[in-house]
Amino acid sequence: MKNNFKISIFGLGMLLGMTASCNKFLDVVPDNAPVLDQAFAMRTMAERYLVTCYNSLPLNSSVTANTGILAGDEFWLSSQSTYNSYNNWKIALGNQNSDNPLMNAWDGNNGSTGLWIGITNCNTFLDNIQKVPDMTDAEKLQWAAEVKFLKAYYHFLLLRQYGPVPIMDKNIPIYDPPGNSQIPRSSVDECFDYIISTIDSDMEYLMDDVTAVNQETGRITKLVAKAMKAEILMYAASPLFNGNTGIEASVRNNDGKELFNKTYSIEKWQKASAACKEAIDFAHGLGKHLHTWNAVGSFTPQTSTKYQMNTREAFSESSNNQEILWLDSRSIASASYQGAFMVPRFTANATSSSLSGYMSVTLNLVEKFYSKNGVPIDEDISYPYNSRFDLVTVPSTDGYRFNLVAGKTTSRLQLDRENRFYASLVFDAGRLFVNQAGSDANAYNIDLKYAGASGKVDPTNYNWTGFASKKHYNYQNTVAASNVFTARLFGYPVMRLANLYLYYAEALNEVNGPTQEAYSYIDLIRERTGLGGVVDSWLNYSVNPSKPTTKEGFREIIKSERTSEFALEGIRFWDLRRWKDAVKELNTPILGWDINQSAESSFYRPTVLYTRSFMDRDYFWPISLNERRRNPNLVQSAGW
């Protein structure tokens, strides 16, 4: 069977490990798209139409196109006028509306790709692929299976965003009466059943995993299908969709049809648990495992550096990363993208034109990382939580000097935190380890105060909270003389094995409560970052030592674990919704340090940057006025 997709269409392998001094994205939009009667006349043209089916996948490595990265509480921007085009951030600001919704994947505007267009393209492909004369039957079956997955996945993305949606398994002929296209919403259970059955229907024809990295990266494989099926079933089992009795679930079709099953079902968690285990076992059978870092160069790194780099590279290194189960080959973290997250002037050469650093991490998220003992800082019996904002002097001992600048005055909050804290965050009086520094002992010292090297100098591009992201900046990037920024590109991971591990632990807990098996999958992730096991950590360091032994307590731990492990990746935004925790978590003020101050005593003050609100109606997007006018059978989302 031929799998020789062109590198300009799918292949990522040649880009992984390459460097770029400018913004280069893969061009996946076919030029001069053929009319339908030509599209399936030969294999090469059908291949281009296949690429078109992939083209509605969200562009995760775009700051403005990734909804989750800016619509929640992980990142914040400095100016509504400067970043007026950032529609995802406008959602966080509370500017969503029902006439012309932001990040509108239904209509394909205001920052989002059109998912219904993607579904239409998939249906067209499936209706015509058998006509192609110069393809084998096996190849047709594989391509059709890929497209069936995409069609199901696009339905899921709509369901996740809008709640119950119409099911469009076949395209409606263009000359049909208008009423034939005025399809009402299907129920939530009908949507999930359709999505899962569509994924399952032809999964056997998918290749197990990518084998030719240069040509196949980004294509749908059996590994991808099993992993994403597990995620979809996790959503089906979660409180937003499983037994939801809130106002967001009160919407009914015009004929009175209930769209939400308000009765909680343990069976949904059982299905999710089984799917997670099946996907994990399949991934293990293909040699997939949690990523660990191999240092570039001859120096011997500190143990803490190894733990931190395990976390950083799990997200920002695509080459030989066996943790990534689905790598989006359309979403390439370019030089400009990485520069948006990294503070400028951390070296004399790192000027603001190459590293803008305007993607600022909120103090809200910063506080959620564990202490060095692997429990929340407000639970740790040895952590001075009530004085966490007091000023202290950084000790010069090895336990501190590789993470913070010895002798500097800083906030107590930034000391004695878990390795994922130091792996994920750049902050004042902290240190930035990159390969260019030569070793972790020579890591760059960060000064983010007003008069500091990385402080507020540029009138528009500056860090607004006092915290930036290490995760989005590959540690092999270099900034040479004359501001030559050379970035090591990486593809955005849609699904990591760590995600499946935590999904599985969550599902097991909901079915049976805490079990040794559930502990074991969380402990694997904690071990990778240098933390002790869940049970021992809470027993030895928490004010609530029995917390892991109850379903409710262990549920909280799993949520905290997901927050730390996937911090800044845009996953938390969607987790808070499926858990129905967004009303609680997203109704607090956005906080940061006072970056307009030079003295430590003034800089290290929690400062309210924005007061926001999140209502129950915000769990689902509204449907635009134009679409509701076109289709009167399409009822509006509740509360809008």
From TrEMBL:
Residues 323-640 form the RagB/SusD domain. Keywords: Cell outer membrane, Membrane, Signal. Signal peptide: none annotated. InterPro entries: SusD-like_N (IPR033985), SusD_RagB_dom (IPR012944), TPR-like_helical_dom_sf (IPR011990). The keyword Disulfide bond does not apply. It holds the Pfam family SusD_RagB. The keyword Lyase does not apply. It is found in: Cell outer membrane. PROSITE patterns: PROKAR_LIPOPROTEIN. Residues 24-229 form the SusD-like N-terminal domain. It comes from the Bacteria. Belongs to the SusD family. This is RagB/SusD family nutrient uptake outer membrane protein.
